[in-house]
Design goal:
single chain, alpha+beta, two-stranded antiparallel sheet, 28% helix
Length: 238
């Protein structure tokens, strides 16, 4: 009888630790465990973001990535550190519940609290149409992150000519320049601002990340390990 009870207890314990794929964080790491000098400014843990409130699923102001993406980011960091820069992370892994929060906010057309700061030239009802908001995000697959450069000499964030999460043409990587040649072509960005974007872009591409056409700060590991899994566990220290 005792053996039967022990077997039942073991069986129940085994079932309890069998997580659904989307809830399994075992292949993720804290970015700062791999890139210790990365600066974290996790916008969705605070209120200074396009929604204006903390986003669902962000329990701590930390940043997570798959092991593979974090290792590649370490190589990026090493290259940029030799040039006098550190990485500053705005967002990395984003749980599906956070994406769902964005979607709910996007459908509430009356809530325009942060419009002056992030989308002054866009109507809120256009944000879905222009893919600023979507029901699925590459961030939820664990190998995408949003970041910028920090200048160790000036001890300031590098001037990229625009803020993170600005909804508009000005955020496109090819704004005011030719991405193939790296040539500045003129416009509201200065030549130095465009070059600053290119410094980040070149370093990320050199270590296996691919850019996003609409956001200079957004990169995804080309060979991401979970291309079809949208994870749901919350953002907190692992």
């Amino acid at each position: 009888m005792l053996c039967s009870l022990l077997a039942l207890a073991c069986s129940c314990a085994d079932k309890e630790i069998q997580l659904a794929p989307e809830d399994d964080a075992s292949q993720f790491v804290n970015i700062t465990d791999v890139v210790p000098d990365a600066i974290l400014e996790i916008r969705y843990f605070g209120t200074y973001n396009f929604v204006g409130t903390r986003i669902d699923g962000y329990l701590q102001p930390t940043a997570l990535l798959t092991r593979e993406a974090a290792d590649s980011l370490k190589a990026v960091s090493d290259d940029l550190k030799a040039m006098g820069y550190r990485l500053k992370i705005y967002d990395a892994y984003r749980p599906q519940m956070g994406v769902d929060h964005f979607v709910r906010w996007g459908k509430d057309l009356a809530d325009t609290l942060m419009k002056p700061y992030f989308y002054p030239n866009e109507s809120k009802d256009s944000l879905f149409i222009k893919d600023y908001i979507a029901t699925k995000s590459g961030h939820s697959r664990g190998s995408t992150l949003d970041l910028t450069l920090f200048d160790m000499r000036s001890e300031k964030e590098v001037d990229m000519g625009g803020t993170f999460d600005w909804f508009g043409r000005e955020s496109h990587p090819d704004y005011c320049g030719n991405l193939e040649t790296g040539e500045y072509t003129g416009g509201s960005l200065t030549a130095q601002q465009f070059e600053n974007r290119m410094i980040l872009r070149r370093a990320m591409l050199a270590h296996g990340f691919k850019p996003y056409d609409c956001e200079w700060w957004h990169f995804t590991l080309k060979d991401e390990p979970f291309p079809d899994t949208y994870f749901a566990f919350p953002v907190k220290e692992l």
